[in-house]
Amino acid sequence: MYRFIAAMLAAAFCAGVAQAQSGGVLTLEQALAQAGAASPMVEVGEAGVRAADAGRTVAGLRPNPSVQVQAENIVGTGSYHGLSSAETTASLQVPLELGSKRSARIAVADSRLTRAQVSAAMLLGDLKLRVTQAYIVAVAAERRLAVAQAQAGIADEGLRVARDRVQVGATSPIDEQRADVLRINAATALDRARRSVTVARDALARLTGRPVTGALDLDWFDRVGGYGPTIPARAEGTLAWAAAKADLATADAQVRLARSQRVPDITLSAGARRLAATNDMAAVFGVSIPIPLFNNGRAALDQARAERAQADAQRRLSLTDAEQAIASAEAERDNEAATARAAGGAALAAAVEAARIARIGYGQGKFGQLELLEAERTLAETRGASIDALAAYHDAEARLKRLTAPAPLTSGDNQ
Questions:
Q1: Which of 125, 238, 318, 384 is the most buried (most CB within 10 A)?
Q2: d(C-alpha 278, C-alpha 344), whole Å
Q3: DSSP secondary-structure letter at 169?
Q4: Where does residue 128 rank: exposed (0-12), middle (13-18), buried (19+ CB within 10 A)?
Q5: pTM beyond cutoff 0.70
Q6: How, if at all, do strands 87-96 and 215-216 pair?
Q7: How far is residue 49's CA from residue 110's CA, in Å, rounded to a whole number?
Q8: Tens of pLDDT along 11-51?
Q9: What is the per-residue pLDDT across 281-309, written as a single tens digit (0 to 9) for each?
Q10: What tens digit of pLDDT does each residue of 377-414 get?
Q11: How many whole angstroms from its chain centre is CA 121?
Q12: Which residues partner with 95 through β-bridges?
């Protein structure tokens, strides 16, 4: 699984580099590929899978035999003084596991390997969500910078027109003062927008592992999903569902392991004894059987069963939470899509036209400055609402994709 993930990320990274070399726009796909090649989150997931895979190998190992050497009738008194009467026994002891303990351990290790693979996929999903959200923030900051630049230009032009009208006596000097205040506020907003762009690009660069100096895909940001009803997503088959299912499988395997531990193991021994007095050799055989007097494994089995019941309840709770989160993300996505279409469509066009007419009318003395300021304020708010709605729509879409990401192939599918 982890080799497949690494190969997939490497292919995506190469494709992203090739696209970046052919064009000057950093797309979301390229940012995701760069982050996948640079982020330690991928290494965390791969290391977890490797550790679980090694744990599976360890679980399949049998107990080691042991060699025992004993010497009797030595360093005593009388005829047992020294080593002349020593009886030396050398034996090989082989423990035998009963109750299918080895297969039970392997089942636990297999379920943990599956859980590690799901965790690796969840880390990849989290990384993709973080990069997508950082990309959304960066593009939205670019859009707000463009709006701030436009508003600064409009404020400069408004001050010029107001000053000309004051000089010819067509209006009161207070109009010039209002226009100057608007110019100062617009310049301040422009500086703030530039700093926001720098911060957003730096945040995206930290995730991708390389500086973000080129243009971003502004056309992607302006696109909103299609019209019409969509099929509601289900929690079954998602990463959250797979994680809860893997936890339950691990708990089931732990119950089986605890049950197998109640069966005592035996140890067989075979060796040879040398009698120093006669220099004769004799075979020695033995069987060791533990007596489950104080710990018969019942408490451990009860604990495993309780943990299994907890895992089952957690699985059902996770499924309910996932379905609720998916439904909320879908509703938020649809609501923000409708808001973005309205704010970026007819409403924005009407605000732009109203501001254009107000500027022309104010320059010709047909409208007062208050009407112009109201039209400009409405235009700025409509543009800001459109950007906010687009950012919220893409954020909800990214969270929905993370919530509905399909579960990966497990160890049983790859072996």
A1: 238
A2: 106
A3: T
A4: buried
A5: yes
A6: unpaired
A7: 11
A8: 444 444 444 433 489 999 999 999 998 889 999 999 999 99
A9: 889 999 999 998 888 999 999 999 999 99
A10: 888 888 888 899 999 999 999 999 999 999 886 655 54
A11: 8
A12: 267
